[in-house]
Design brief:
Shape: elongated
CATH class of the largest domain: Mainly Beta
Order of helices and strands: HHEEEHEEEEEEEEEEEEEEEEHHEHHE
Number of strands: 21
Oligomer: single chain
Largest sheet: 7 strands, antiparallel
CATH architecture of the largest domain: Distorted Sandwich
Number of domains: 3
Strand content: 25-35%
Structural class: alpha+beta
CATH superfamily of the largest domain: Glucose Permease (Domain IIA)
Helix content: 10-25%
CATH topology of the largest domain: Glucose Permease (Domain IIA)
Distance between the termini: 80 Å
């Protein structure tokens, strides 16, 4: 079994460059997949195999299953966990959401990462303004003392009592995202701890600015908060997609997640599909403008006694403008009865 696994891994990491288009296509389809809880917390493993890639290992479990995992030492060296690292400041980035790209992609989980829904439940208070105050996450019903799991693998940046949040745990993940867990009655981790999805980081509570036991859950990217429902379907507990296609308007405090199949198809277009769609849209826009311009154009058929000045006065324009709209027509042109000229 170990030998066959190793051969599969070697093949995976030695795909020819000529297969890039196929890889991109698979990556695109893979990114759209919904994800159930993938946490293997508590599972006993029997052995670990090298893959040829020093940052990736194969872990064999006692129950006969296996999975690819990232080597923690390789992850720890990432600048994600060193730059803008602050164990007290909720937002160490201090950049404006407007400075982020209009659109970009973030891998949420791949075959090397884990996911665990913080709580499969109907959110009680949604993202956006609430009572005139910005609510930068969602509130999940959570009985006091109930264990709270980490949603993704990562490193604890903050584990402290923070005004408003009460007992707060903030975890930074390798993709640059951060998840916030507020109002905890007790914190089970310290700043600097590495956690896996499903690890217990605290207990549900009602500390800080809270009207009753619940979990305040936030998702942020470079300090900018967006509705966690873009990531997780809390009703079913599933991760909506492995790949999050981000739009700048996600960070608008009034922008909540609204499921729309057409919008989702637009969000998940590839760059090439985007280029083709943009060209098609440009053609449609040009055709629409042409139709609108044609509909707005007015013409006059010359009758006995007509003069350019009289026609200009009638249509509230100027002789100069009429001449511009009709190539070859000048103020000295003899108007022929029956000729049709454009007047706007």
């Amino acid at each position: 079994m170990k030998k066959s696994l190793l051969i599969s891994v070697i093949l995976l990491f030695s795909l020819p460059l000529s297969a890039q288009e196929t890889i991109d296509s698979l990556r695109h389809a893979f990114g759209r997949q919904r994800v159930e809880t993938t946490s293997l917390r508590g599972s006993l493993y029997a052995d670990t195999l090298d893959t040829g890639n020093p940052s990736v290992k194969v872990v064999l479990y006692d129950n006969g299953t296996y999975r690819f995992v990232k080597d923690p030492s390789a992850v720890a060296d990432s600048t994600v966990f060193t730059e803008f690292w602050d164990t007290r400041n909720v937002n160490p980035y201090r950049i404006s959401p407007e400075s982020l790209p209009d659109r970009f992609s973030i891998w949420i989980v791949d075959s090397l990462d884990s996911y665990c829904c913080p709580n499969k439940v109907t959110p009680r208070s949604k993202f956006g303004y609430r009572h005139g105050r910005r609510h930068q996450g969602i509130d999940l019903p959570y009985p006091k003392g109930t264990p709270v799991p980490a949603t993704f693998d990562g490193k604890v940046r903050i584990s402290d009592y923070v005004s408003g949040y009460g007992n707060l745990v903030v975890i930074r993940h390798a993709n640059g995202l951060e998840t916030f867990y507020g109002h905890l009655s007790e914190r089970k981790v310290d700043s600097g701890d590495w956690v896996s999805a499903g690890d217990i980081i605290g207990l549900g509570g009602s500390t800080g600015r809270s009207t009753g036991p619940h979990l305040h859950f936030e998702t942020r990217y470079k300090g900018a908060a967006f509705d966690p429902s873009w990531l997780i379907d809390f009703e079913t507990g599933t991760l909506r997609h492995r790949l999050l296609k981000v739009r700048s308007w996600y960070f608008n405090p009034n922008q909540r997640y609204v499921q729309n199949v057409d919008d989702e198809d637009e969000i998940f277009r590839t760059d090439e599909e985007d280029r083709i769609a943009a060209e098609e849209q440009a053609k449609k826009d040009a055709a629409a403008r042409a139709r609108a311009e044609a509909a707005a154009q007015k013409y006059h058929t010359i009758r006995n006694g007509d003069t350019l000045s009289g026609i200009a006065k009638r249509y509230r324009t100027t002789v100069k403008r009429i001449c511009q709209l009709n190539p070859g027509l000048t103020e000295k042109t003899v108007l022929r009865v029956g000729r049709r000229i454009r007047v706007n």
